[in-house]
Amino acid sequence: DQQVKQNSPSLSVQEGRISILNCDYTNSMFDYFLWYKKYPAEGPTFLISISSIKDKNEDGRFTVFLNKSAKHLSLHIVPSQPGDSAVYFCAASAAGNQFYFGTGTSLTVIP
Amino acid sequence: ETGVTQTPRHLVMGMTNKKSLKCEQHLGHNAMYWYKQSAKKPLELMFVYSLEERVENNSVPSRFSPECPNSSHLFLHLHTLQPEDSALYLCASSRDYTELPTQYFGPGTRLTVL
Known about the structure:
The complex is a heterodimer of chains A (111) and B (114). Chain A has strands at 4-5, 10-14, 19-25, 32-38, 45-51, 56-59, 62-67, 72-77, 86-93, 99-101, 105-110.
């Protein structure tokens, strides 16, 4: 049973607009969350993280929001750029143990 | 060369072959991981090594055999694989295993089993 779910396999957004990628999880013990970005033929690269003691973490154009009661996190990219086109994975961990990954969302930013 | 490297990048093998995947990290990390990514499935953790000792083995079939000769190198030995083992195999490393780690991934080996 998947503990981390990304229900949208793909998303298309116009350049300059906001991209919102969503992730849901089932394990209430998860306390650390990450987003990874993956280009074709490359491994995932770390993008941004958030601890369960926070509900928001911002890094430049990227902001991650965590809603613990809904077991939901989202990644906002503003403004979206064509170079942001990639597959985005969310991952979650409980107490520093194994990370569980979602299936990824493929983002296409249209120039 | 920096980061995490994996060789080969692509591998096609028959079910009776024996092959090995190699991973090398140049980051001075103490933990290394093997993941499997099948189509439309999440990344699945296969093995974890911390300071060259295996700390996790997530019910992986014995036809996959990991080896960590030192903290910079990780191998995945393959023998008598099945077509359903065709996937992208990703290696990752992190500074430590016990702390909340940011994992750095290699580019992966695309494996096809005929």
